[in-house]
Amino acid sequence: MNCPSCGAAMRLNADEDYLKCDYCKSIFFPAKDDEGVSVLQVASDEECPICAVPLMHAALAKIRIRYCTRCHGMLIPMAVFLALVEELRAGEPGTLVAPTPDRHDLERKINCPHCHQRMDTHFYNGPGNVIIDDCDPCALNWLDHGEMMRIVRAPDYSNQRAFESS
Fold first, then answer.
1. Shared domain check, 12 and 58
2. Which of 4, 20, 48, 114 has the fewest CB atoms within 10 Å, i.e. is most exposed?
3. How many folded domains does the chain comprise?
4. Range of 67's domain?
């Protein structure tokens, strides 16, 4: 992407949620979509496991993810997944909530965008009634469009159960 101020190429640094122009020092924060994702206009080396188009670097709640601009799927490192859910619960998340998953989605076979091995498809072991795909060796989760917001907005009774049992 070129700088809107001077036209020079903008740079994306690791773990930042904005682009920076080295020439005029302008900073560009992309707009957020209906799930709160800001697409950073820089392609990653990985392809979407659903659409086979390059995933884009993106930010969600200031946490870097990779994102498909066609199907709106998200590739999220496991190391930041729970922190991202908590950050979104604490803030103002997007507006979209996905419908309840179809059990046939458990039969889906997709490959990891990073290592290209088959991902494990299963129900998310937390609130939201969502089917996710993950790759343990690469420590990556794949969520389809709307599933993150379904997890974020689902009631979480785990803290309540821990409180009641004490």
1. no
2. 4
3. 2
4. 34-156
Q: Where are the beta strands (DSSP E) in the chain?
A: 10-11, 19-21, 27-28, 37-47, 54-60, 63-67, 74-77, 120-123, 131-135, 140-143
* Residue 111 CB contacts under 8 Å (≥ 6 apart), including other chains: 49, 117, 118, 119
Based on the fold, state whether residues 4 and 62 are members of the same structural domain.
Answer: no
63 and 23 part of one domain: no
162 falls within a domain: no
Mean pLDDT by 10 residues, the chain (166 residues): 85 79 86 86 93 94 93 96 90 60 84 96 86 96 91 69 48
SS3 147: helix
Give this prediction's pTM.
0.78
